[in-house]
Write a structure and sequence with these properties.
About 65% of the residues lie in helices and about 10% in strands. The protein is α/β, with parallel strands linked by helices. Helix 13 packs across helix 15. The model has no long low-confidence stretch (mean pLDDT about 85). The site of adenosine-5'-diphosphate (ADP) has 13 residues, from helix 10.
Length: about 600
């Protein structure tokens, strides 16, 4: 129990601190306004009393004075409310942007291995969806506790002053009400847990119907009926749970409705009785009844705040755990700055690596050397470990054993950003963004028009781009920006490949760069890369197609996580091993296209 309290306290403290971190004044401004509105509710309780007293004594002047004061106070509160709303809205929106920015910055700084673990990734997703809500809920609950306490003290004193018996009676009514409410909440909570699980599944189905990739797949495979049926099963399950919830809680709801009305009637009767017996004045009748309603709400709020704090601390756990996670071991911001032109030698020495969620090693004891000017082809079957080599070279992961060095220095000693900009890699699951074609090519750098044109010509995309009304300023896809261009898979790949020419980088890696290209485009591209590339430029091409491997200075064959063969085309053909076998099959297939 103590542990539970500690956790609720710790999590909510973390959330409250976040508000102070982004805006020191917001909480206090909100608190002042909340206290002011509590004050307004006290005025509403007292107004009928003062009015009736004046009316009974026939003092019209006093009635005017009471209403005048009431009018001034309420207008002041309302005007303050307008200023408050303006401030609160602007500050809250700014705070939300900052909360989300901090979250996203944290995410991009974490190791890729964090996202490989499905549990961490789910935490990341849920934390992102919840972060603003849980912070706001914590803030609102604290405010509601403070204002409810103020209301209880203020209105309670008014009631005590009117009649102590009335006060005690009200407390008894409220206690019964709260007990039943708590039973109801416990039943509701269990059902809500089941419902949120099912709602998650329904959301998945919705995503299928608004994601173009899935819409295409559903149409092509004609599986709309099949998916609708699956969704229907979940919908029916939700209906069943909701019905169960309604029927299980029915008796408590009826009892509560009955008690609520009875409470009110009894309270009204008790106050009327008190007036008749002259325990309280007639003017105090409405004050007492009004105070009863308000104090009941305030005590209810105060008592339910524990459940809100508890639930909020559960919901907030994903966000808090994520913000506290410290998995950024593969980022070095202080290390040596690496320049692409200075890379002389890249060495892998006895590198062994397994992914965090995998049982087997993806690479086993891999050693090789790449010297400046090498043109290397890494070949092998799917899943052999080719891409993993590149991910390690870019320090997206660290190997469990062995070392990767550049110019004799471990890559862990280099500034990671400089490492990744020096070794320009185009990965097979590349991404293009819904920004302009220029931005997609230049990636935030300044590139001259001439260079852009040359880069697009190299990949045979210039004609297409020059036919577009907006030219290079045309955004990719019209899903985000109107007038955007939709590129085919092959055209998108060509655009990404043109970065190699536009960024003029002396060390680059292409991972399956031609998977969406036709054999002619693929052949032409390799040819250009080899021709245009200066002799001191280094490049590594990963491919399971062997179109131009015979022109590379070295071929590394990866099989089952290790280096199976390595050498020139001629050496490997003479060896008559894996490479020779692959080459022979492919030359038969593409005999018409190869030179
Ligand atoms: P290749 O590029 O040769 O097709 P990869 O290097 O991508 O192969 O993958 C090597 C092995 O590592 C495969 O068995 C693959 O399933 C596994 N693997 C790749 N990425 C991950 C990952 N993020 N988590 C777990 N296993 C992975």
């Amino acid at each position: 129990m103590r542990k539970k309290w500690k956790k609720i306290y710790r999590n909510n403290k973390f959330l409250l601190n976040k508000i102070f971190q982004y805006n020191k004044w917001l909480f206090f401004v909100r608190l002042c306004y909340a206290v002011l509105t509590s004050f307004a509710s006290l005025i509403n309780v007292l107004l009928p009393k003062f009015l009736l007293e004046a009316m009974f004594e026939g003092e019209l002047k006093r009635v005017v004075m009471v209403l005048g004061i009431y009018f001034v106070i309420i207008v002041c509160i309302k005007v303050t409310g307008i200023f408050y709303e303006n401030y609160n809205r602007a500050s809250t929106e700014k705070m939300y942007v900052e909360i989300i920015n901090e979250f996203l910055h944290k995410g991009i700084g974490l190791d890729l291995s964090f996202f490989d673990k499905s549990e961490s990734f789910s935490k990341y997703n849920r934390g992102f969806g919840n972060c603003c809500n849980v912070i706001e809920k914590c803030n609102n609950t604290i405010l509601s506790v403070i204002t409810a306490s103020i209301q209880i003290v203020m209105i309670g004193s008014v009631l005590l002053w009117a009649n102590v018996y009335v006060f005690v009676t009200i407390l008894i009514f409220i206690a019964v009400n709260i007990t039943i409410n708590n039973v109801l909440k416990r039943i509701d909570y269990d059902y809500n847990v089941k419902l949120s699980e099912k709602n998650k599944q329904v959301n998945y189905f919705y995503r299928l119907f608004y994601t173009p990739k899935f819409i295409r797949d559903i149409k092509v495979n004609v599986i709309d009926e099949f998916i609708f049926n699956k969704k229907q099963e979940v919908n029916e399950e939700i209906l069943r749970i909701s019905k169960g919830q309604m029927s299980d809680t029915k008796k408590y709801r009826i009892l509560l409705g009955f008690l609520d009305s009875l409470e009110y009637v009894l309270a009204a009767f008790y106050f009327a009785y008190s007036v008749i017996k002259e325990f309280i004045a007639v003017a105090d009748y409405f004050t007492s009844l009004n105070a009863y309603q308000q104090i009941k709400n305030a005590i209810n709020n105060l008592l339910s705040s524990y459940t809100v704090f508890y639930n909020n601390s559960l919901f907030a756990e994903d966000y808090i755990d994520f913000m506290r996670s410290n998995e950024n071991t593969t980022t070095n911001r202080e290390g040596i700055l690496l320049k692409a032109s200075e890379i002389e030698k890249v060495e892998f020495e006895n590198v062994t690596f397994s992914y965090p969620n995998a049982d087997e090693n993806a690479l086993k004891n891999v050693s090789f050397v790449i010297n400046r000017g090498d043109k290397i082809a890494v070949v092998g079957k799917n899943g052999a470990g080719k891409t993993t080599i590149i991910k390690l070279m870019l320090r997206l992961y660290d190997p469990q054993e062995g070392e990767i060095r550049i110019n004799g220095i471990s890559i862990q000693d280099y500034n990671t950003d400089s490492l990744r900009t020096s070794i320009k890699a185009l990965l097979q699951d590349f991404a293009v963004y819904a920004f302009s074609l220029y931005d997609n090519l230049a990636l935030g750098r300044e590139i001259s028009d001439e260079k852009m044109e040359m880069a697009l010509r190299e990949v045979d995309l210039y004609d297409k781009v020059s036919r577009l009304k907006g030219g290079l300023n045309t955004p990719i896809t019209s899903q985000v920006t109107k007038g955007g261009v939709e590129l085919s898979g092959g055209e998108t790949q060509k655009l990404v490949l043109s970065r190699i020419f536009a960024l003029d980088t002396p060390f680059f890696i292409l991972d399956e760069p031609t998977s969406s290209l036709d054999p002619y485009a693929e052949y032409g591209l390799y040819h250009k890369l080899l021709q245009s590339s200066k002799s001191e430029n280094t490049f590594i091409v990963i491919s399971h197609r062997l179109t131009l491997t015979h022109k590379m200075s070295k071929i590394i064959v990866i099989d089952n996580g290790g280096i199976a063969e390595s050498g020139t085309h001629e050496e490997l053909m003479a060896l008559d091993g894996i490479y020779a076998g692959m080459y022979r099959i492919q030359s038969e297939k593409y005999s018409a296209g190869s030179d």
